[in-house]
Amino acid sequence: MHETSYQTHFNAARHVIFSNEPVGEDGNLSGYRYTVQVKCLSCDQDKPTDMTIIKNIINVTLKNHFDHALILAFDDPIIDRIFEVTMRDKMLGGTKFSQGDAWYGKSEVGKVAVLPYAPISENLARFFFKKLTLSVNQLAPIDFRLASVKVWETPNWCSEYPVN
Questions:
Q1: Which regions span the lipid bilayer (predicted)?
Q2: Separation of alpha carbons 111 and 133, rounded Å
Q3: DSSP string, the chain
Q4: Mind listing the domains of the chain with CATH numbers?
């Protein structure tokens, strides 16, 4: 078995409300150039791993939705400020956040990704791993599987899921 990895970048803003903030105070919007590293395992050591498959899966699953987007948690009060209430109810009503789904769309502020939890690197790594695993299992060769996803918010701070 051997391990290969593919690394890419995307730019996004996120909004996080921390539980230690006074009620009614919002956290700041923060912009990041995220780095995402996807590690894969393959049993076939006699031929090179076709990372084109992983690159395409990453583009469709992650970059199309998150590059230059505002990433929010589904319970973030800022959603009420950027969407009309009727649109918010319609948008969130059809999404199964309890199952880890996300909503992607556009608003007056541009592209938006709404996640079931706070958009911090720990949660992004877990979310990306789960979404990518579904696609890899469907599209990649049978001897190929996802090992982990690592997400850097800054050059000095990253989270990996799962931890090996």
A1: none
A2: 24
A3: -EEEEEEEEEEEEEE---TTSPTTPPPPEEEEEEEEEEEEEES--SS---HHHHHHHHIIIIIHHHTTEEEEETT-TTHHHHS-HHHHHHHHHT--GGGT--EEEEETTEEEEEESS---HHHHHHHHHHHHHHHHHHHS-TTEEEEEEEEEEETTEEEEES--
A4: 2-20+27-161 (3.30.479.10)
Tens of pLDDT, residues 111-129 = 999 998 899 999 999 999 9
Sign of CA pseudo-dihedral 149, 9, 140, 136: positive
Length in residues, the chain: 164
